Amino acid sequence: MSGEPDGPEDRVRRFATIWSRAIFPVTATSLTRPEFEQQLVPLARRLRAALHERIFEAAEGQAIGAALVGTHCTDPEALSRTLDCVDAYLVLYCGDDGPQEELRARSARLQHALAAGFAAALRERTLAEQEAISRAALDARSAVAEALHASEARFRAVFHGAAIGIGIADLTGTVLEVNDALVRMFGGLENQVRGRNVAEWTHPDDSPHVWKLYEELVRGEREHYRVEKAFYRPDGTVLWTNLTVSLLRDADGVPQYQLALMEDTTERRLLNLRLRYEATHDALTGLPNRTLFFERLEKALAAGDGARFGLCYLDLDGFKTVNDSLGHAAGDRLLVEVADRLQSCATAPGEMVARLGGDEFVALTTGGHTEVEVDDLAGRIMHALSTPIRVEGRELTVRGSIGIVEGPAGERGAAEVLRSADITMYRAKSAGGNRFELADPEADARAITRHGLTTALPAALERGEFFIEYQPLVHLGDGSVRGAEALVRWLHPQHGVIGPDRFIPLAEHTGLIVPLGRWVLEESVRQARTWEARHKDAGPLRVNVNLSPMQLTHPGLVSDTVEILERAGLEPGALCLEVTESALIGADDDLLKPLRRLAEMGVDIALDDFGTGYSNLANLRRLPVSILKLDRSFTQGMQHFPADPVDLKIVEGIVALAHSLDLAVTVEGVETGAQADQLRELGCDTAQGWYYARPGPPDQLHELALADATS
Fold it and tell me: What is the per-residue pLDDT for 163?
């Protein structure tokens, strides 16, 4: 042996071997088992391909099931063994180390499609046999009407040798003849069938049109009909059949008898019901799954006038911790117990509970008074979860967050309702969890807009939808322009200009802040170099660029900054990086190391929003900062004369402290001349705000700097 791992084809053949060994004993074929295995190899290849298709196609699974019937695997046991084989070995031999959970879900769907294709093909095969028997019976109908007809022997051979049930009745409905197959269907006693009247075989599941078709046939208005019909056996069990009834006429065309052909579909129906149950119920908890829940929800939303619905969307708080600490088996037992408790909460008519997946459950209530009922249902759920659950000898406290959507039917679709419930549930979770919240259309709209902005961010950067405005930094001593702060904006195609307070947190959450921050730094440095070249006589102009906490931890911060400065030809002293005070509270040496390296190169580091982070003032000595940017909340009391004396004392103390540490002080939010004068007297170094200029295009700074140089 070479020692090399088996290739995909080898594993497919191994799977085919296991498959053939499982179903060969119940297959009617003249082939040897190895010959039969060769017939299964192409089907195994198709199963493997369907398992790995990017988009699942149920039609392929159905075609494989039909092909299985084509290999003479028509015994129901062959299907059962095939499903067991696919469930146990398909992912193992044909999964190719792919994502196991996803492959097992795909394998389950393949089993459902394969079983459906098998059942459909077997039905077609049986119907073809029925048609052949029916034609033979119709050809021989004169033998029934005329007992001495020469073809009676041929009809009897077909009648008694058929594998499906055949019965003959007169036009009053009295059963005259039955074959052995039909007798076996009804329990094996001929006297329980022969002599009975057809009208006695009613069943609660009969459709109204079944007996309408029968009446038309015995009146001679219809030659035949085919229906699915249930019968009670003598022992009380139910026999399900595909029933074909034909009218037999005599030589003159006068109706004489009715001929019934019955195919026993009980086992197939039970199989379909089992498959339907498995397709619509969660395998772990036994609750209805997402598929069945959506069917019920859509039905509830399509109800008539006056109907209402209430939906509770539940997500367990901290469930991941249970899986991580106790293992997935313990997590599964917890979910089963939660499912049982939820099931006990939804027992009233019109109520149901389902598991959508993971630790997400939904409860639905319908009727005309769901405004009160849905709140009551949510309260029962919260109460049911309040008792600890014992798992592996430990008592686990279960908490959950519930989003409630309630309203009239017919106004929204199922997807919209579920999205609103999901958004509301996360609002409850954000509020601390272990609570329920009622859906709010305005909050939904904000969440949807936020999600839309989040998904649009990457493409917006690629399409160049961001731009930068610059707010001048003015020296309080002589009023000269010393530089500007770069403020990024988003020109959204639908929402217009969006400020950083709306999209920067989203960029932080998605990680896009790193490429976006690099772009802002590149553009700002390039603009600073342009200013430097355009008005050398006005003195150096510095550009301030904000750094987010995520950028601080990015390993390429120093190298990217150096590369951008060198490529633009800008000295490090013309750049100031602003870091918020809250980002540096408790910062260790590893976090401060990149900032120290940049400061050693000559880049200024400004501590932004100073005074809002409750940091220890003694920490200022170890931070590599050269500028304090005083938060505007300290100077709002100075907008009018006389200034707030408390604010004056605070700012005076901060300025004195900063200057004693050789730090410059910049003040934000200067909006009046009185503010500017007072800050100048207190010794502040630079300021920015609407009093001097609002954020604007880069040319605005050039004009202001040029005016300073010529004044």
Answer: 75
Closest CA to 179 of 164, 169, 191, 192: 164
* Six token digits for residue 402: 């519930």
End-to-end CA separation in angstroms for the chain: 91
DSSP string, 583-604: HHTT--HHHHHHHHHHHHHT-E
Cβ neighbours around 337 below 10 Å, total: 17
Task: Tell me the C-alpha distance between 199 and 51, whole Å.
Answer: 50
Output the pLDDT for position 659: 92
Give the pLDDT score at 152.
60
Which pLDDT belongs to residue 445? 65
CA distances from 324 to 318, 320, 321, 329, 333 (A): 10, 6, 5, 11, 14
**Rounded to an integer, what is the distance from CA 698 to the centroid of its chain?**
45
Tens of pLDDT, residues 578-601: 998 888 776 777 888 999 999 999
**β-strand partners of 484:** 472, 543
Residue with tokens 């494989």: 64
**Cis bond leading into 642, ω under 30°?**
yes
The single-letter code of the amino acid at 153 is A
Share of the chain above pLDDT 90, in %: 30
Whether the bond between 99 and the residue before it is cis, its omega within 30 degrees of 0, is no
Residue type, 702: H
Cβ pair 472, 692 in contact under 8 A:
yes
Answer for the pair 620, 663: CB distance below 8 angstroms, yes or no. yes
Q: What string of DSSP letters covers 123-155? A: HHHHHHHHHHHHHHHHHTHHHHHSTT-TTHHHH
> Which residues are bridge partners to 70 per DSSP?
none
Q: What is the pLDDT of residues 205-234, one digit of tens each?
A: 888 888 999 999 999 999 999 999 999 988
- Work out the burial of residue 308: count CB atoms within 10 Å of its CB; fewer than 13 is exposed, 13-18 middle, 19 or more buried: buried
Q: Do residues 425 and 401 lie in contact, with contact meaning Cβ atoms separated by under 8 Å?
A: yes
* 234-250 pLDDT tens trace: 888 899 999 999 999 88
Cβ 617 vs Cβ 588: under 8 Å = no
DSSP state of 288: B
Who wins on pLDDT, 708 or 462? 462
Phi, psi of 653 (to 5 degrees): -65, -40
Q: Can you say whether the dihedral through the CA atoms of 269, 274, 275, 279 is positive or negative?
A: positive
